[in-house]
Amino acid sequence: MTVVRSFPKGGIHPHDDKERTRNGSIWNAAIPSVCVVPLRQHWGPICERLVETGSRVTEGMLIGRAPVDGAHVHAPVPGIVRRIRTLHIPECGECEAAVIELSGAFSKLGKDLDERDWRSMPRKAVLALLRDLGIVELSGSPLPLHHSLQHARRAGVGRVIVNGAESSPYLSSEDRLMQEHCSELVTGAEIIAHLLHTEDIVVAIGADKKAAAHILRNELGKRQSSARVLEVGTKYPQSAVPQLLRSVQRKEIPYGKDEHEVSCFVLGAATAYATAEAVLFGKPCVERVLTVAGGGIARSGNVKVRLGTSFREVIDECGGLDASSVRIVSGDPLTGFEVTDLDTPVTKTTRGILALTRSEIRDAERRSCISCGRCVRACPMGLEPQRLYKLIEHGRQLKAEANGLNACTECGCCSHVCPSRIPLMQRIAKSKTEHFSDYRATRQPTYVEDQL
Ligand code: SF4
Ligand code: SF4
Predict the structure, then answer these.
(1) Are residues 275 and 413 located together in one domain of the fold?
(2) What are 101's strand-pairing partners?
(3) Does ligand 2 come within 6 angstroms of the Cβ of 374?
(4) Which of 143, 185, 319, 360 sits most deeply, having the most CB atoms within 10 A of its CB?
(5) Residue nearest to atom 7 of ligand 2 (CA)
């Protein structure tokens, strides 16, 4: 019997509606005639713009150069830069964007590319490839991968955990990636383990993803790999790093530290895939797979999309919006951001596009706290959300921090269970952001207050 490991305290089981998307194959969205490419698509500094209006660009050309702790940005399509505009991306803040009109030939798309022998390359060269090709963590906190890896190397990390838990409601793109691109995914994990001088790889996979787990076990058997598959629970937020580590390692990350403190490097399944594509074929991060779902969308599914494609075009690709759709969300319904402008482009941080109907959001009237304690029981970080909320409302920031404010992972469990519909997570997240003094202060999360 397979043992399923779950995290012990807190968490919830929201309606996840994954059935509509997890059984269909990933398909390629049409290449848009215009791509809007923001010069910051991760948590970190804005890239230096390398193109002007009128510049000709080729597929995958470097158009935004990041400083050492950032992620470069590349042209997703060949064409001509028609203008430079400023826009706001909820996850990353305000920045310039290059508007590229498609023209000319693709150099990589649809071509058979030679596979690099990465094992014969010096580790430094592999790491430089990940930096040069702008790879970021695509499923969790969108940090530049090369930078996180350098940090992990210094910390002497001994285990790589591929995060295949994907517990966010509606989202199933990583489940599909694990089923359809299992070989690349395992190679990506092997590359990361090689860079960290370890062979200890664990693929933590949600117990609801039986098909993916079966395919992975077969692939690992074929390769005679020492990596192993570990089934973890399906409770939300199982895929958040602290909860994943509690399940896999049976360890807590100390307050104010990261997973390197418990000698682990956590890599999202989509990031493992992007790593393999970059290192084997030299592909920059110019596309991603995302879930398009919700009661308001005509054809739900998982789509591979060129970055810079507008939400409108992705939605049209999926048959358009139903009249019942009342809200468009980037991400998942618990922690995603409302998108009011459908010309917003898909970026490296876009995990999903949801068109939600009235019955899929909870817009009940807000009332006073009735001290029911549900938010405390739901918090997977062991915090007291109602207490943090009150401290923030009374301007007692330092006291809130002393009560663990910065340990909040913005999972949204507290807001979800609150019968008084108090926007606990939204207020806590805003307070954290207001008091950051680094780039995270620019992301201005626009969480809606009556989410699922
Ligand atoms: S959003 Fe923060 S406070 Fe609320 S349940 Fe999640 S970790 Fe706890
Ligand atoms: S769940 Fe809502 S009503 Fe209950 S204690 Fe928390 S804030 Fe108060």
Answers:
(1) no
(2) 34, 80
(3) yes
(4) 185
(5) 386
